[in-house]
Amino acid sequence: MFPTVSHFIEYLFGIQVPLPFNTFGVFVALAFIAGYWAFTQELKRKEALGLLHPVKRIITIGQPATTTELISNCVFGFLIGYKLVYALLNYRLFVSDAQTVLLSLKGNILGGLLFAGLFAYWDYKEKNKFKLAQPKKVEVTEHPYELMGNMIVWAAVWGFLGAKIFDNLEHWDTFIQDPIGGLLSFSGLTFYGGLICGGAAVLYIAKKNGIKPLHMLDVGGPGMMLAYSVGRIGCHMSGDGDWGIVNMNPKPFTWLPDWLWAYTYPNNVAMEGIPIPGCVGKFCNVLPLPVYPTPIYEVIVCFILFLILWRIRHQIKLPGMMFGIYLMMNGMERFFVELIRVNSKYHVAGISFTQAELISSLLFIGGLLLVAFSIKNKNTHTS
């Protein structure tokens, strides 16, 4: 396994390059990039079909930097410099424990002041380049795909918060023992929490900009399936604990690689299992028994489902149907992988189930109802 990018580089090239990037985080970033691409393509396609429309806005140009803008740039610059300079001066600590460096109150005051001044000066000079003797109002056209930058930021922030909240609810016993650590930790993220909260933020921005919810949901279906597939690569490569139950069964096919059937996740970032003899460092554990590598199963299955959604999107004309199909696919895929995945279980009225099984079932039912709604109201839908 490759807990950090440095481990991956060492595996490929045999050299140690100390970098403060964990493998899971890199693939989360790649997942957002993949989703950004798919969302953008769909927004452009739907605008070309006349289903989405650009928005006219009136903006003022030629104004100098305001006091509020200068102050906000100072604050932002100070936060960047406060942490960045401290991280560079304590690079070994940053590489070994980036979470502590970023989330603690420790920082460099001089670095903060330096960057505060630079950010404010940069904003002042940039605004002065285009300053007019008399600022004027002009009309600009904003296309739906140009909203993606704003959407991706909101989706990332609210998605992370939702993923943390749902994960802590799923592991309540551990959370109440250390609530602060549970909230601030970079590990422990639940996909459905991120999907629900991040999706709600995107829908809010879309509605504010004249995009109907059903159209925005349809845009998101293929992109979210692709992003999930990419993100799960990070889960597998880092060994973040999202693996399956113990699998001691013989391989069904001799040509099947061992790591694709049963794997022990050596050097996993979750630091679970037993010590690896002779290993020195932070990530020196291996599972005592092989387990189903469920993240890689989801990578493969979800990428295939993305290809299906991407292929059929041209044939689906009814608003809401694409997202309904996505929900059904997503719910079904996750429900079945839960059957062989390690997870906390709830017990209600004699019924045992996981949080993901419950939510995936609700998503499948919700998708089915959305498809039925789209078909029933096909004559009343308007673009």
TrEMBL record:
One GO cellular-component annotation of the UniProt record comes to: plasma membrane
Matching InterPro entries: Lgt
Spans traversing the lipid bilayer: 20-39, 101-124, 186-206, 295-312, 318-337, 358-375
- UniProt keyword Ligase present: no
A molecular function GO annotation: phosphatidylglycerol-prolipoprotein diacylglyceryl transferase activity
List, alphabetically, the Pfam families matched.
LGT
Q: Name one GO biological process term.
A: lipoprotein biosynthetic process
Q: Which UniProt keywords apply?
A: Cell membrane, Membrane, Transferase, Transmembrane, Transmembrane helix
Question: What family is this?
Answer: Belongs to the Lgt family.
What this protein is called in its record is Diacylglyceryl transferase
Protein species of origin: Pedobacter cryoconitis
